[in-house]
Amino acid sequence: MKNYSIALLPGDGIGVDVVREGKKVLDTVSALHGGFTLNYEEYDWSCEYYAKHGKMMPDDGLERLRNFDSIYLGAVGYPGVPDHVSLWGLLLPIRRQFEQYINLRPVKLLKGIQSPLAGKTPEDLDLIVIRENVEGEYSNIGGRMYEGTDMDMAIQNSVFTKKGVERVLRYAFDLSQAKGKKKHVTAATKSNGINHTMPFWDEYVHKINKEYPDVTSSIVHIDALAAFFVSKPETFDVVVASNLFGDILTDLGAAIVGGLGIAPSANINPEKRYPSMFEPVHGSAPDIAGKGIANPIAAIWCTSMMLEQLGEQDSAEAIMTAIEDVLQEKEILTPDLGGKSTTEEVGDYICKKLKNSL
Ligand code: NAI
Ligand code: MG
Questions:
Q1: Domain 115-257: what homologous superfamily?
Q2: Which of 36, 80, 112, 164 is 20 to 30 Å from 327 at the Cα level?
Q3: CATH number of the domain at 1-101+262-358, please?
Q4: Domain boundaries in the chain?
């Protein structure tokens, strides 16, 4: 019997509510499947932890996480702690130390969800964005000078390395070759305005593409690409982007397939030297925290991505089928999807569907 160890980091706000439901779903599928077990360790690292200890996690936090198979995270960030503190104190160190250089975000219209784009069906909206996750525009290289004077200034450098760019592009071409419907990779760029890093990126797109003769590629400026996500999303399949461009594109992606309540993401260390981390795209949503109405589907979809990465394909698919069943029925949904149900009711209902299906 296989056993997987999972670190739970519910974090702040609705992170706590949605991770609770995700864990329920994981327990349900593992019990029904019978071929694997899951062991959890839960950590209370969060902004609340920061208020007590002056840091987001203990000094040996990363050491403690290192040997898990996966990390399942809710969300971090809460009013009172600046966002850059919570991000740089917990999320970014995990992504960077554990070389989770791939951020995978499916932009897939599930059955039962109405896209805000008129007339678009699940066949039209089914693409995946691969966001570079550890370098690019989100570097901490730079500084502030002359604060408080007329010469007040700030500089932030972007970092694009051969290693970092090649590996994210290879991941995209590999994915397209193995699973792509169109065998086509679209790379986001802005080499007209950003004239050092982006031409560098484009050059490597051409170079890496040569290793994949059966896959084609195109390089599209990020501003146009954002517009095309709205006007002709059906033309895309695998989209690869730098850290900042991927971040923006995937929030847009989430919006066209039903919103943050159902948008999942995975931070992957493809070599499996370190644990990968699975987290909904949404944040801690202070406006609805504690009300019991957060949509748990984004977090539950993450459990499917986690099981897929662990090699439990059947269970991963069963979770997606259960989610789509619930969405199509439209009986038990949270308010963001027009329903009246609670977070817990949706989680329970998805578990019930799983029990009926397996
Ligand atoms: P947010 O994603 O928390 O909320 C944006 C809006 O979407 C809110 O109106 C919220 O109610 C709604 N929403 C989000 N998730 C939902 C769900 N599951 N069900 C129903 N409605 C949902 O983004 P916001 O407000 O910009 O950030 C709040 C805090 O979360 C900040 O401290 C921010 O830094 C943090 N954050 C953390 C992230 C992470 O942990 N990866 C990602 C994004 C934000
Ligand atoms: Mg974002």
A1: Isopropylmalate Dehydrogenase (3.40.718.10)
A2: 36
A3: 3.40.718.10
A4: 1-101+262-358, 115-257
- Closest Cα partner for 298 from 309, 285, 310, 286? 285
Ligand 1 atom closest to the CA of 299, numbered from 1? 18
Tokens encoding 173: 């071409």
The residues, any chain, with a CB within 8 Å of residue 152's CB and separated by 6 or more, are 144, 145, 146
Atom of ligand 1 nearest to the CA of 285: 3
The pLDDT tens digits for 214-255 are 999 999 999 999 999 999 999 999 999 999 999 999 999 999
Ligand 2 centroid from CA 248, angstroms = 6
Question: Comparing C-alpha atoms, which of 164, 92, 103 is closest to residue 135?
Answer: 164
Give the nearest ligand 1 atom to 76 CA. 40
Q: Can you tell me the mean pLDDT for 185-211?
A: 97
Average pLDDT, the chain: 96
- Which of 260, 291, 344 has the most ligand 1 atoms within 8 A of CB, as the residue to mutate? 260
Give Cβ neighbours of residue 59 (< 8 Å, ≥ 6 apart): none
CB-side neighbour CA atoms (13 Å) of 264: 26
Model pLDDT for residues 272-305, shown as the tens digit of each residue: 999 999 999 999 999 999 999 999 999 999 999 9
The answer to whether 105 and 264 are in contact (CB under 8 A) is yes
**b vs e for 91-122, b when ≥16 Cβ sit within 10 Å of the residue's Cβ?**
bbbbbbebbbbbbbbbbbbbebbebebeebee
Question: Whose CA is closest to atom 36 on ligand 1?
Answer: 283
pLDDT grade, residue 358 (50/70/90)? low
Domains 1-101+262-358 and 115-257 share a fold: yes
